[in-house]
Design a protein that fits this description.
Blueprint (H helix, E strand, L loop, with lengths): L17 E2 L3 E3 L7 H10 L6 H9 L1 H12 L10 H4 L7 E2 L5 E2 L1 E6 L7 H6 L5 E7 L2 H9 L8 E5 L16 E7 L10 H11 E12 L4 H4 L6 E3 L2 E3 L5 E3 L3 H10 L3 E14 L4 E13 L4
Parallel strand pairs: 5-6, 5-8, 6-7, 8-9
Antiparallel strand pairs: 1-13, 2-13, 3-4, 9-14, 10-11, 11-12, 13-14
Length: 293
């Protein structure tokens, strides 16, 4: 993982960083007076309704431009996912010890920073679907030397619509990953997204979730003029980011029929003494299961 950022690499030095250890908690961060003031300052100039609607209408365009500018350089490969989510390692065997292929979907696959490390590390127990809002990102996945439609299929998809059901049958997935993706979607569409995922999962299927937590460093750093709605912000490049409370995520998935298996804040502090960097991050990390009954 890159220094300081949950899923980005370009903004921080790549060397000399180390993690002081994760703290897992269900308690929301207690704000200092200075941090409370920063949040109050954000309310002084909000994104206009017109601009907010335009950002929603042009979400695909902004992500396509993002990948046009950054290509495959921006996000680091997520070799850490198998450490955090052991479900990605699980293979099944039948009586004759031949492997049973599981089916997984990476939602918001970008340029393949989760799926290709999974394949490189030898975990080929899945047929992998990978979808993204950006057609440009999907094309980059297809150009990767490990892309092979005998064990994976990448396709453009707006997960807030019924698009996905044109490629993946209902009730067919063992695993779905939703990692730093839901935060980029308008909060009004969260329930639709989670409802769509529920329809895709087999009974007993697992959703692996990780995203930005409430009062993360990045949320506190936004200046006036970037706040769209409560805990929802516009970045300089037109992409957006929401910051989740742990109980909010649990209620969202529970409300669409999932069982909550794990749901916590992860507090991570990464430092680089040589460069004077001390970066506290907050994520929400969760596992949800579609009931078997």
């Amino acid at each position: 993982m890159s220094c300081g950022e949950g899923n980005q690499s370009s903004a921080w030095p790549k060397h000399g960083c180390f993690n002081l250890g994760d703290v897992v908690t269900n308690s929301v961060k207690v704000l200092t007076d200075d941090e409370k003031l920063r949040l109050e300052e954000q309310n002084k100039r909000m994104v206009t309704d017109f601009q907010a609607k335009k950002l929603e209408q042009e979400a695909r365009k902004h992500w396509d431009l993002f990948y046009k500018r950054n290509e495959t350089r921006f996000f680091k490969d997520r070799h850490w996912t198998t450490r955090e989510f052991e479900e990605l390692l699980a293979g099944e065997t039948v009586g004759d010890n031949s492997e049973v292929t599981k089916t997984m979907l990476e939602i918001g696959c970008g340029v393949g920073n989760l799926v290709f490390p999974l394949i490189e590390d030898g975990h080929r127990d899945y047929f992998i679907y990978a979808c993204d809002l950006s057609p440009r990102a999907v094309e980059m996945v297809k150009q990767h030397n490990l892309y092979d439609e005998t064990y994976m299929k990448a396709f453009p998809c707006d997960i807030t619509t019924d698009d996905v059901f044109g490629t993946i049958p209902e009730g067919s997935l063992d695993i779905a990953t939703l990692i730093f993706v839901l935060s980029a979607i308008h909060p009004d569409k969260f329930r639709t997204v989670v409802g769509n995922i529920f329809r895709l999962m087999k009974p007993g299927g697992m959703v692996l979730f990780r995203d930005y937590g409430r009062y993360d460093m990045a949320q506190l750093r936004f200046k006036p003029g970037h706040k769209i709605a409560e805990n929802f912000y516009m970045r300089q490049d037109g992409t957006r980011s929401y910051y989740f409370a742990e109980d909010e995520v649990g209620d969202l998935f529970r409300g669409e029929g999932f069982e909550v298996m794990v749901n916590s804040y992860i507090h991570r502090r990464t430092v680089n003494p040589k460069e004077g960097i001390d970066v506290p991050r907050i994520f929400v990390q969760s596992k949800f299961r579609k009931p078997c009954g």
